[in-house]
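Its record is quoted verbatim for completeness.
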Amino acid sequence: MPPLDPYLSPQAQQAVIAGLFLAAGWWVVAVQNLRRDAKRRAERVSDIQRAILAEIRAHVVALENQRLDLRDAHDAVRHIRENGFIQMLPDNSNDRIFSAIIEEVHILPGLVIDPVVTYYRQIALMRSFETQLPDLAARNSDRAADMFVDYLELSEVARETGYEAIRILLASLHGGDATILELHESDERARVDAIAASLPSELAEMRDRLNRRSLDRSGL
């Protein structure tokens, strides 16, 4: 006698078995859907990172080409002060891809978001300066010259943050969070080693300064 016969009729047992099969089917479908969604999300995250990487890399190359040496920078600042005119600045509106996916930034790995957003924030600041400088130069050449110096510094910071964003994006694409963390740990070890290497000479210089002050105070 089947074990459930004392409790359930054959029809009820069939209904229970059918319900179990149905529930198992739902569970299998749910798991498959989750896997499919996770795969699609991973593919989308990868696509976004590759697109942003291409945009940042192209602009960092442009920033390298736009860099002024010290003499050219001094000449440009002097020209602004003397003439109240600034030559056409390069177009740094290099955020079309980022603007297109801004609503999806939150799906990127957490360790990627900060360097990417920091880079694009610098680009936005540069664009703000580029739109203000020509009119300001005509109204107040000295202030425009000072602002142009700030603009050059912003350009250097944008270039550096661009390189950092590229490093993090490449690490994420090739190894995920684990590779990014290894990169951070490597950077930290390099900083510690640099401090350790420079510390003895800095301490020696400090002791030398203190000794000279003591001699000066003693009148010797």
Remarks:
- The CA atoms of residues 77 and 149 lie 7 Å apart.
- The mean pLDDT is 78.
- The two ends are 114 Å apart (CA to CA).
